[in-house]
Amino acid sequence: MRGYSSFRFLVIALPWQLLLCLHINTAAAQLRTPRFDDAIMIDLQEHRTPAQTGFFLFISNHLEYGNIGVPAGLLVGGIIGNDKGMRQNALYVASSTAISAGLTQLIKVLVKRPRPFIQNINISPVYRPGNYSFPSGHSSSSFATATALSAAYPKWYVIVPAYLWAGSTAYSRMYLGVHYPTDVATGAGLGAASALPMLFLKK
What we know:
It comes from Mucilaginibacter ginsenosidivorax. This protein has ten helices and no strands. The protein is mainly alpha-helical. The radius of gyration is 18 Å and the shape is elongated.
């Protein structure tokens, strides 16, 4: 009965989540970029240092260590320890991250917001990625992973590192000049919300 209720919740919640995200993001795309978006980006680039740039590049370029490594580690641990709950939580984390990635890519294609350095020539990125800007895929997937992991293991020594990693990843996208704050904030919210419909998988 619990499984049926959870499945029914997923069927009901996921389409509404998708429609809400599309509505919010489409509305945002129709507006001009807020002044604070540009101001924050320019301020960040003016205060870059080689050490910080190297650190945030590393964080940004190794996203898969968390998104793939966490569920893979849980799966391996569950197999070795014959722990069904750990294997189930591995599926929960992986599914949450996969949903966030799918929704993010769909919204990117529908909204088609240009990267900050394309919209404003005063913004100088550390490197120039392709694709669209809104919302931030790094932010959505890292927060989906962090939220699902924290829900599966609600201990401070899991929650704090998980969200520190997700927050650092999201911040790195602004610091590197490739995403606006609104891209990052929307991505983080979308990622965290993506873990909710899959709660029925959590042990």
